[in-house]
Specification:
The protein has 14 helices and 18 strands. It is an alpha+beta fold and 440 residues long.
Length: 440
């Protein structure tokens, strides 16, 4: 197949490249909505299936349009025709009145992970194309055009969902037009979702407005390479210059602040998100204020993103601010997240409560003996203190990395692994390709 775009990889070739990199045996779950991109991916996989690789398909019906149930059944017919087992998963319950696109995406990933659990999938595959990539970067650039903005790297080719399933995007270097030409050559149709042209959607507006000034693939590749390099450098900086005490207090020694400011921006933003229990790093303006404060070398304190930044002669101390720490009760045999920072599993017969506590200065010094007393007192008051009903035993309280536990792009895997080691978290699984995956 000859492509219209010299930089576009035909879908059948893109799939062949993917399969060649996968160790055998492998089980692949393909997310199929019925649109041209996902049907093209499904068809290319069906045509190029190989020994040692099993294929499964799943359709998520978000139940946002009356036609969606019939479309899901149509996809089931297509999968039956190409001999690929297929399941439909429905997004049940009430839908939010705002932020529907983000909520639908979260539901889709959750339901795909559940389907992947059921078949023991090695990876989940989606049909995101080069067009989706260009649209994504264009939208992110409109929000923040700083040269080291992570979003300018675009979508990663591999993303870890909920710490357990890798999602792969084999068509990111394939134009949608080439996917459709591929399907037309096989006499295969697809479903056009009307929401793709609904100008109430940011992506639909971006798609309509893209023209000759669209961001180039070369620019995306350069930004991806830069993002990977910044993340790797930040991981090295953490390993050399950072310590974490009791999973709540980070100390970065003064020598670290001689590093490249772009690396420091990334390190501070993600570290603050982890310590503050937030899935997103600091906003651009807050991040710049924090960086300027840290680089000034002057002693003092400031708060941003629920984190106190305490500058001392021997470096910077970061921990969660005391304000706004919630109480939490976990029922028997239940698991819950406390303050976005810890996962509490209750295996006892009684309830487990986590409450903000007051500690004395002496207790804090004993708990954090190697740090200034005022820092120790602050850190001791943001630790989890489970209280068990009736004095029962049977619970665990483990730190989590809020920015990465739900969604970890391959760009950040080394940095996330370094943070996990410092915080005493469980490690992250390697990609299905092992060390061979590109870190663009």
């Amino acid at each position: 197949m000859v492509t219209a775009d010299p930089f576009s990889i035909p879908p059948d070739e893109a799939v062949s490249r993917l399969l060649a990199r996968l160790p055998r045996p492998a089980r692949l779950l393909v997310a199929v909505s019925g649109g041209s991109d996902s049907i093209g991916l499904l068809q290319a996989l069906a045509n190029g299936r190989q020994d040692g690789i099993e294929l499964f398909a799943a359709t998520v019906d978000h139940r946002l349009r009356p036609e969606s149930a019939g479309e899901a059944l149509h996809v089931a017919d297509i999968c039956r025709g190409v001999g690929i087992p297929h399941v439909i998963r429905n997004w049940e319950g009430d839908k939010p009145s705002s932020g529907i696109a983000a909520a639908a995406r979260e539901a889709r990933y959750r339901l795909l992970c559940e389907a992947a659990d059921e078949v023991g999938a090695t990876a989940i595959l989606t049909g995101h194309t080069m067009d989706d990539q260009v649209e994504t970067v264009t939208m992110r650039a409109a929000r923040n055009s700083q040269p080291d903005t992570p979003g300018l790297a675009g979508m990663a080719e591999a993303v870890l969902l909920h710490r357990r399933h890798w999602l792969l995007r084999p068509l990111l270097r394939t134009r949608r037009a080439d996917v459709r030409s591929f399907l037309q050559s096989l006499g295969r149709g697809w479903i056009d979702d009307p929401s793709n042209v609904d100008i109430r959607s940011e992506r639909a507006r971006t798609r309509q407005n893209l023209g000759g000034e669209a961001v180039s693939l070369a620019a995306i590749d350069a930004a991806a390479s830069q993002r990977a390099a910044i993340s790797e450098a930040a991981a090295r900086l953490l390993s050399m210059h950072a310590q974490v005490h009791h999973s709540v207090l980070m100390h970065i020694d003064a020598d670290a602040f001689r590093a490249d400011p772009m690396v420091l921006r990334y390190l501070l933003s993600v570290s603050a998100a982890v310590l503050g229990g937030r899935e997103q790093g600091l906003a651009a303006d807050n991040l710049q204020r924090v960086l300027s404060f840290c680089l000034s070398g002057e002693p003092g304190r400031m708060t941003a993103g629920r984190v106190v930044f305490d500058s001392r002669r021997n470096g910077l101390y970061l921990c969660r601010e005391r304000r706004g720490i919630p109480a939490l009760q976990v029922a028997p045999c239940e698991t819950a997240i406390w303050d976005g920072r810890f996962r509490v599993a209750n295996t006892s017969n009684g309830a487990v409560s986590l409450l903000p506590v007051e500690t004395t200065r002496q207790e804090a010094i004993e708990q954090f003996p190697a740090v200034p007393a005022s820092v120790a007192l602050r850190a001791s008051q943001v630790m989890p203190y489970p209280v068990l009903a009736g004095g029962e035993q049977g619970f665990s309280c483990k730190p989590i990395l809020a920015p990465f536990d739900r969604f970890l792009p391959q760009f950040d895997l080394t940095f996330a692994a370094t943070l996990a080691k410092l915080f005493g978290c469980d490690g992250f699984p390697t990609t299905p390709f092992g060390d061979s995956i590109r870190k663009r």
